[in-house]
Write a structure and sequence with these properties.
With about 210 residues, this protein is an alpha/beta fold. It has one domain: Rossmann fold (3-Layer(aba) Sandwich). About 30% of the residues lie in helices and about 20% in strands. The chain has seven helices and six strands. It has a six-stranded mixed β-sheet, sandwiched between helices. Helix 2 runs parallel beside helix 3 and helix 6 crosses helix 7.
């Protein structure tokens, strides 16, 4: 059986400032570092066998904090990178609703019709294909995936709940929060979502 803990990376300065962050390689800030180490301690008793991470610094540092408590290999996987936000990268989330890209931003996150993907941005379907490929290739046993907010939500909504990948915007994941998926005989189940462990063991958070 596969048991997979999906972790969003810890906080960065761009996250704190409300800036859209996808391909930019922004490191964890002090809060994010504390979140990562707290999560590592919370997962220390788990029998983790594999750890896969996005190669971006904010994810890799979070994964390294978890890895420090285990003998499991820490493997970078480019398929776990964040969805590419294209022209919205580095822009303030609230300001987009009133700025020059307001119409494009609304169309990008629109849940009432087929989203419009602006030039330079990655489609939700593209993100869904690569995160599904990464998940399908996971070995049996307990695995940690450290990734990013939108691509993790696409995994949960599309690969597990079989909703359109753009429905990811109806879901929220906190920094350094854990969601859990199991797969047995081809059947996938979402066991928990957005668990904020904050130093408590995973078993007590169920």
């Amino acid at each position: 059986m596969k048991r997979v803990l999906v972790v969003r990376h810890g906080q960065t300065a761009w996250n704190e400032d409300g800036l859209q962050t996808s391909y930019s390689d922004i490191p964890l800030d002090e809060t994010g570092q504390r979140q990562a180490h707290s999560l590592g301690r919370a997962l220390a008793a788990e029998p983790i066998e594999h750890i896969f991470t996005s190669p971006l610094m904010r994810a890799y540092s979070t994964a390294a904090a978890i890895s420090g408590y285990h003998d499991a290999p820490l493997v970078r996987d480019g398929r776990l990178r964040e969805l590419d936000f294209g022209p919205f990268e580095g822009r303030h989330i609230t300001a987009e609703m009133d700025g020059t890209l307001a119409d494009a931003y609304r169309a990008w996150i629109d849940q009432d019709q087929v989203p419009s993907i602006p030039p330079g941005a990655e489609s939700y379907e593209s993100g869904a294909r690569r995160i599904e490929a990464a998940f399908a290739a996971l070995p049996e046993g307990l695995t940690v995936l450290v990734t990013h907010g939108v691509i993790a939500r696409i995994l949960l909504t599309h690969s597990i709940l079989e909703l359109p990948p753009s429905s990811c915007h109806r879901l929220w994941l906190d920094h350094a929060a854990v969601s859990e998926i199991t797969e047995h005989n081809g059947f996938r189940r979402l066991i928990r979502i957005n668990a904020r462990l904050a130093g408590s063991a995973l078993s007590s958070a169920r």
